Please model this.
Amino acid sequence: MSERGAEFFGKWITDNVMRGSVGADIISVAELTTKLFADAKAAGISEDEIEEEIGSAYEAILAAIKGPSDYESE
Model:
C-alpha cells in the first residue's frame, strides 16, 4: 500500500511544487505539508501511507523545493 502513497506524493509534488515557484522558508514548507495531507485524505490516502514510503513529508517537500544538491551529482 505504501507504493500508492509514494505515487500520490510524486504527482502531488509535480503539481504543487515543481510547477510553481515556491520558497523554501519554514512557513511555506509547513503549509505545503498540511496541503499535501489534506489532499491525500481527500483521495483516501493516509499520512502514514505516504510517510511509510518517503519518510518525513516535510523533509521530502523541502528537498523538492531546494532541488538536487551538489552532493547528489558526485
Residues 70-74 have pLDDT under 50 and may be disordered.
